[in-house]
# Entry
Amino acid sequence: MAAAVGVALLLAGSLGHRASGHPPTPSAAASARTAPRAAADTGGARGSQTRTQNAAVARLASYGLPLFCGGRSKRLVALTFDDGPGPYTRLAVAKLRRHDLRATFFLVGKQIRAYPGLAQLERSVAAFGDHTLTHPFLPSLPNAQMVEQIAGEQTLIEHVTARRVLLFRPPYEGRSPAVDREVRRLGMLDVLWNVDSADSLGANYAAIERNVVSGLRPGAIILMHENRGQTIRALLSIFAALARDHLQAVTIPELIERDPPSLAQLRAGGLGCATKLKPGSGG
Ligand SMILES: [Zn+2]
# Structure
């Protein structure tokens, strides 16, 4: 934990562009000017994270409710990869790039440090989410450590990738009122899923493919893990199924911008994702 606190102290103020309640400081503004890669975030190129996407995520985050799926009115889905970066990151990025697909990576701080350069590599195909510094079960931590795990990781990813981090996913689905409050205070949206690949339960590539493909519907948010060879092996079949169903894989911010859930759907939690649309019916 001392190392984690050290990182947070080192990085404190390096990016001050938090959501509400955290106005940029003069030093943060100066720092942003010296980070040329951040400029890409204001453009509309594929793979970038636009201001309108950030605004859409911030608006949804202000409700303080977790997201399980998108609005289901457009033929969009979100592939999400937890726990990286790691040994399969280059392969995953190459596959996504080759098929012109986008994904969301929920990164862990200790992995970012163990695999330097890989989070930056993911920028061209990814949006990023906070998955804590060391992947603990947050509800069992003392409050200060819980805060450090979440806030420290948000700062670390923003420093390394020059991207705003407005998404959070709790390790082991470990939420509590205190965790939810901290995520909201930091301007982030809690992102869960409505389709579980079951790769973290040891499913092989054929079962992962089956689990994902059977859940492919407009608005689906699909849970996968980046450091599993069986998951990476299943990707091409999953991509083929997306093409067959005329579904586009986008990042979570793009999904929220183009097809956000209604407030009623958000309030319904996972049950708000139940509607099934036939291929071709979703616009
Ligand atoms: Zn995880």
